[in-house]
Amino acid sequence: MSYVELSYWIPLLPALGFAVLILFGRSLPGRLAGWLATGVMAVSAVLALGLLRDVALAAPHWDLAAIFSGQSESALLAPGSPDFPFRLEWNWLAIKGQAGIPLVIYVDALAAIVTAMVALASLFIHMFSIGYMWGEERYHTFFAFLQLFSAAMLAFVLAGNFFHSLLAWEVMGLMSYLLIGFLYKKKTAQQAQKKAFITTKLADLGFMIGLFWLYLLIGNFDLADLASEHTLALIPAGTAAVIGLLVFVASVGKSAQFPLHVWLLDAMEGPTPVSAMIHAATMVSAGVYLTARFYPLLIHGHALMVVAWVGAITALFAAVIAPAFADVKKILAWSTVSQLGYMFLGLGVFGWAAAMFHLVAHAFFKALLFLGSGSMIHGAKTQDIFEMNRLKKYMPWTYLTFLVGSLALMGIPPFAGFWSKDLVLHAAEEHAPILWLMGLTAAFFTAFYTTRLIVIAFHKPAMPSPWKAAAWTKGAPWLNLGPADAPPDPEPPQGHHPHESGFEMVTALVSLAILSIVVGLWGSPWADYGLLKLLYWGDAPEILPVGKLLSGYVIGTLVALSGIGLAWYWYAAGDPLKQRAPLWLTRALQRRLYIDEFYYKVVAALGQSPTYVLAFFDRWVIDGLVDLSGWLALVASSFLRYLQSGRFAVYAFYMLLGVLALYLGGIR
Amino acid sequence: MVTLGHFLLLSGLLMAIGLYGVLTRRNLIAVLMSVEILLNAAALAFVSVAAYRDPHLFAGQIFALFIIVVAAAELSIGFAILLNVYRSHGVVESDAISEMRG
User: Fold this and answer.
1) Helix (H, G, I), strand (E, B) or coil at A78
2) Which of A297, A531, A590, B78 is found 20 to 30 A from B12 (Cα to Cα)?
3) Do A330 and A321 contact (CB within 8 A), yes or no?
């Protein structure tokens, strides 16, 4: 039996794991709940890898050298299996033989690769959580939520039907909400979960409207059908652009792109494995994945430039803001926003395969970085990088793996980010030089803030955090997060000696480090672009960037090195505390360029103004009617109560009167 | 000549006496007795109409039997209530049990 036929078990197993853990988790002793969930994910991951192998064997083979030299016609080496892409279909919601919404699993190269990525990343994040979450209240509930989230994400990736994508998408949103607020006793966590939920729900409206509009036009929700010429011919180009952009709005919300990026920073209130899994590796890239799935529609509607610009702006702006933060998780959160921007940039400039390569590579190294930060927080008992005391000495494994992740993030060869990010930048260079420049600038800042993080947290001794100065204590009024970047622990633990994390956590870190290197190399020229070959579909226009690869690699590396150099000069060679930006600049960056404030002051106020009228109506008209009915009943009863004398003879007399009335009234 | 009208007149009189008793008597035992009179008035009407109008079918007589059974049952429940009223209130006056007054 092939792995394709078993593929429905990949999301089903974690879903069953969720059911077991939520029902019986409380009675599982010790860390068994965590190990059980990890075991389930391991089986899922094996199935996903098997699926990937099947797909790699069945997919058509392309000669990338021919494509790079522009001879795409002769580039097909082997046409691949006739069954490919694989499709499993069940009847669902069918009423009396009428076709309902079929349950479809659609496995092409992208689905298989992302499924494997999600399953593996989930596996190691589950494993890390066994140690990290140990001792927390609701230990089993945490794993139950992680399981359901993994199930939803895997179902989303494998769905061959956009209706199911939508369902899984919403389950992911719910789990994100529940897990951000997992430490629900913290006020900040409650506010953060609401912010995340409301922002993404607002964006999801775009998905729903777009999807149902599409249904009106083509009469089904099928993913593969959307890519066919025949279907696209039914949709006018303008409508295609509008629908594509509506769906893109949902992606912007889910992937925390400008201008809906505001929720991701606050989402860091969740436990660190949650940040790693949902808000770095998997859920936020679901938005990119969705846009990649609606790619034919976006091309048909000539709307890709919007995607590219949103991506480039986000990539640059998030990378610029990141150096102003001192909380390790928030720096990484900005970094995630920025890297997701790269993916949209890649999609927008026809670098479809490059963007997908970056998605997979980023998922691994960012999960690694987040888990590394979790290990740092676990060991150092603070989230403020300035208060971390020479972690390199105390946490060698964490340091080593964090370094691997950082090199991948900065784009230093031969690590993953180098191959994937530079391919995205090549594509941008080909199609929109200005976006390419923005991407390069963002790469510079990426290298800068990453080096700053490593130097201050791992190399320097603990120091009083400059971010606790009174200047920052004015929090955003609607969130009241305290200082813009408040560390949760008010006492700087000066004399605290960090310690390396436990066995499960280190194993997870090392595995993810190895995976991130392997994935990067798989898409590199040394492996003959194996990953990219798999992703290439023959008839998509300019899926791969063409051209000056080598010069691009050199430029990318130089930019990254200069960012590292500047950060090293400022923070490692000099005293980190002496490096001060002008106050207005730091403050603006710390306040996230006032975008959150703008939403509160302008958007929220605009939304709130009609509610005053409605509140008046509610209080005086609707409530008035309700009060009136109560008052009428009171008045009536104050008279009618005299009928109830308590003497049965009187009641009997009423009965007699009633009988007489019936008699006289004509009932004979 | 005794006609059906005479019987029905007697039945109506009994009904009126019973009603008068139920509505005016304060003693609960007297009320129960009045109810018995009411029931007997109805039984008399059934039997007489049956005897005059349809002597071969015994529907009216069967109804009268039912009324006797119902009267027995009603009386036993009525006395049980009455006994409880006497235990809790010390009297069997209808004025004493007007707690349900609104």
Assistant:
1) strand
2) B78
3) no
Please determine, for residue A395, whether its predicted confidence score (pLDDT) is greater than 50: yes
Sign of CA dihedral A392, A397, A399, A404: positive
Q: Which three-class secondary structure state does DSSP give residue A475?
A: coil
**Helix H or strand E encompassing A403:** helix A396-410
What percentage of chain A carries pLDDT values higher than 90? 24
Residues of chain A with Cβ-Cβ distance to B102 below 8 Å are 640-646
What residues does A95 pair with on adjacent strands? A98
A residues 275-314 closer than 8 Å to B (CB): none
Q: How far apart are CA B41 and CA B22, in angstroms?
A: 14
DSSP A510: H
List all residues 6 or more positions away from A565 whose beta carbon is below 8 Å from its beta carbon: none
The answer to whether A656 contacts B23, with C-beta atoms less than 8 Å apart, is yes
Q: Which residue among A641, A645, A652 sits closest to B98, beta carbon to beta carbon?
A: A645
- pLDDT (tens digit, 9 = 90+) per residue, A328-363? 888 999 999 999 999 999 888 888 888 888 999 999
Tell me if chain B has a CB within 8 Å of the CB of A652.
Answer: yes
Tens-digit pLDDT profile for residues A176-234: 999 988 888 888 888 888 888 988 998 999 999 999 998 888 888 888 888 777 888 88
Token representation of residue A575: 């005293």
Q: Is the pLDDT of residue A420 over 50?
A: yes
A653 touches chain B (CB under 8 A): yes
Segment A525-584, tens digit of pLDDT: 777 777 777 777 655 545 454 455 677 788 888 888 888 888 888 887 777 776 666 677
Residues shown for chain B: 102
The residue with tokens 């509930």 is A141
Q: Tell me the backbone φ, ψ of residue A392, rounded to 5 degrees.
A: -55, -40
**Cβ atoms within 10 A of the Cβ of B18, count?**
21
Q: Quick one: average pLDDT of A22-27?
A: 86
Of the candidates B94, B97, B100, the beta carbon closest to that of A644 is on B100
DSSP 3-state assignment of A138? coil
Residue numbers in A near B97 (CB within 8 A): 646, 648
Quote the pTM value.
0.76
Q: Using the beta-carbon criterion (under 8 Å), do B102 and A647 form an inter-chain contact?
A: no
CA distance A293 to A164: 13
Provide the number of CB pairs (under 8 Å) joining chain A to chain B: 33
Which residue in chain A is spatially nearest to B31 when comparing CA positions?
A649
Note whether A161 and A185 are within 8 A (CB).
no
Per-residue pLDDT of chain B (102 residues; tens, 9 = 90+): 888 999 999 999 999 999 999 988 889 899 999 999 999 999 999 999 998 888 788 888 999 999 999 999 999 999 999 999 999 988 888 888 878 776
List CB contacts (< 8 A) between B19 and chain A: 656
**What's the pLDDT score for residue A535?**
78
Cβ contacts of B93 on chain A, cutoff 8 Å: none
Q: How is residue A546 written in tokens?
A: 């063409």
Which residues are within 8 A (CB) of A303 and not within 5 positions of it... i.e. 6 or more apart?
Answer: A240, A241, A244, A245, A248
Q: How far is CA A32 from CA A133, A560, B80, in A?
A: 13, 44, 66
Domains delineated in chain B: 4-91 (1.10.287.3510)
Interior angle at CA A288, CA A282 and CA A293, nearest 5? 115
Q: Show the DSSP H helices in A255-390 as ranges.
A: 262-266, 272-276, 283-293, 295-300, 304-321, 328-348, 352-380
What contacts A517, CB < 8 A, 6 or more positions away? A404, A408, A415, A416
As a whole number, mean pLDDT of residues A224-253 equals 87
Amino acid at B7: F
